[in-house]
Design brief:
single chain, alpha/beta, Rossmann fold, six-stranded mixed β-sheet, five-stranded parallel β-sheet, binds pyridoxal-5'-phosphate
Length: about 500
């Protein structure tokens, strides 16, 4: 299968690229994204045939239907990383909370957030291709929390790949920071930057434009790549768990084959939701995909009114920080799939130059046939956390936003799969506040108080973080980032 560009081709780039090309150098004409030219089809017989499959068997079959240019042994190696999840036979448990609400838990991997679902196998594939080609890669990431730990974990000690990861010092949770600064490997560099996430991100952009930086990379024959969520190498692994979650409901005999369900996704950059969209297009029986947001509700606006309007908005910090996003990059792939490259280019260029676009009535109807959306304020989220806990389910503030869409966005009484994107351990102060009213608690105290209240243990990989040696001690002004990274490459 080949990949084509969401904003059309400028005659300078090749018209189609293979999967490995799309993930290694994801830069395309007019700033577009690579998207699959067509999608495999999963029919009812497919679901019948996988009723007894474990996760890796299912994943192998779906990936093979994408016909990507990656050898079977590399895929097997990548998928074997799911063996390190809590339950190797089922890395993604689907848990009943209410009769028609099931939670698909995507956080049973090493860093306790759903980023592991895609970054674990993606890191393995990228390193394997780099080795095969005899090329060296540098991955640069700026993180506000969950991507950094997951990227470091997957690339740690991997051949032919180095990672420089920047985070806003003081802008992440204690657990997230410790997950990064305790990573000890020669190919990893973690840099705390004084300032907020925007400072960190703009410093990264500046670095990418620097001549000295480019010259050093060239001299050392190092290629630059990205592990952000627009990379199709991550998206492809995010189609699989949607299919798996449906199969889990079949296995638990709460639906019959072909019965439609709602997918309910806490959304930021729209990677998770896009995986659901592709699964639906491939044939997964989905009534609608519910898009949950927090107060940064640009996606609620888009899906309810057809307007993507950045003119009057700025990002507000919330208790679900991984969703504090206004430029939701993967929406572009849905626009492309529904409306084509010409229209997508027009809309995206308008967004860049005028900070807004408006879909036509007909386009909006097509969007609303697939998606419904709402947003959840922090205070409401706390109430959902409290209520679910009283009903026997402990969840994080990102997952909680889906309980709002579950209440407000369904027209039919169908089973709903809520995607849980983080374990309670990653956002414990907010949860402790919801459950006990305590405020301003440090992570370690909040973890203990939740564990006590819920009668559970703090998972070892989180508890041990507080005793591990700090391996990464660099905290600098943003002006010094370039110097620091050049020194790391020496
Ligand atoms: C990244 C993240 C999200 C948002 O996912 P997208 O694929 O960017 O929409 C939601 N919750 C958590 C905990 C995350 O880490």
């Amino acid at each position: 299968m080949y990949f084509i560009e969401t904003r059309g081709n400028d005659g300078q780039h090749r018209e189609k690229v293979s999967f490995s090309e799309a993930i290694l150098a994801p830069i395309s004409s007019f700033g577009g994204l690579y998207s699959p030219e067509s999608l495999p089809v999963l029919d009812q017989a497919f679901f019948d045939s996988h009723i007894d499959s474990d996760y890796k068997t299912l994943a192998r079959d779906i990936l093979s239907r994408f016909e990507i240019d990656i050898e079977a042994d590399i895929i097997d190696q990548a998928l074997s990383l799911y063996d390190n999840f809590d339950d190797p036979t089922n890395p993604v448990p689907v848990v009943r909370v209410y009769d028609d609400l099931y939670v698909s838990e995507l956080w049973h991997g090493p860093t306790r957030a759903f980023k592991d679902m895609a970054l674990q196998p993606f890191g393995s594939v990228l390193s394997a291709i780099a080795q095969k080609r005899g090329e060296q890669y540098l991955i640069l990431t700026a993180t506000s929390g969950d991507t950094g730990p997951a990227a470091l974990e997957t690339f740690k000690n991997k051949a032919n790949v180095r990672v420089a990861c920047m985070y806003p010092d003081g802008g992440t949770s204690d657990v997230q920071r410790l997950q990064m600064v305790t990573e000890d490997a020669d190919n990893l560099k973690v840099i705390g930057v004084k300032g907020d996430f925007d400072d960190t991100q703009s410093a990264l952009k500046k670095l990418l434009g620097s001549q000295a930086f480019k010259a050093t990379l060239q001299k050392k024959n190092i290629h630059l790549s990205a592990a952000n969520s627009v990379n199709f190498g991550r998206i492809i692994f995010q189609t699989i768990y949607h299919v798996h979650s449906y199969l889990e409901l079949l296995r638990q005999k709460v639906i019959s084959n072909g019965e439609k369900v709602y997918l309910d996704v806490p959304s930021g950059n729209f990677g998770n939701a896009l995986g659901g969209y592709y699964a639906l297009k491939m044939g997964l029986p989905v009534e609608k995909i519910l898009i949950a947001s927090n107060k940064n509700n640009i996606l609620t606006q888009l899906i309810n009114t057809g307007a993507y309007d950045l003119r009057h908005s700025s990002v507000v910090p919330t208790t679900s920080p991984a969703m504090d996003i206004l430029i939701s990059s993967n929406v572009e792939r849905v626009l492309f799939d529904l409306f084509g490259a010409g229209r997508t280019r027009e809309l995206m260029q308008q967004l860049e130059s005028e900070k807004h676009y408006q879909l036509s009535d007909d386009e909006l109807q097509q969007i609303q046939a697939i998606f419904a959306a709402d947003y959840c304020e922090d205070e409401e989220g706390k109430q959902y956390i409290k209520k679910a806990f009283a009903d026997g389910y402990l969840m994080d503030p990102h997952t909680a936003t889906c309980f709002k869409t579950y209440e407000t966005c369904r027209d039919r009484p169908l089973k709903t799969i809520v995607y849980s994107t983080a374990e309670w351990t990653k956002f414990s102060p907010v949860i402790a506040n919801a459950l006990t009213g305590e405020v301003d608690t440090h992570d370690i105290d909040a973890l203990k108080s939740i564990a006590r209240k819920a009668g559970i243990e703090i998972p070892p990989m989180i508890r041990e973080l507080f005793e591990k040696e700090i391996a990464q001690k660099t905290v600098i002004e943003k002006e010094d980032i370039e110097k620091e990274i050049l020194a790391f490459l020496e």
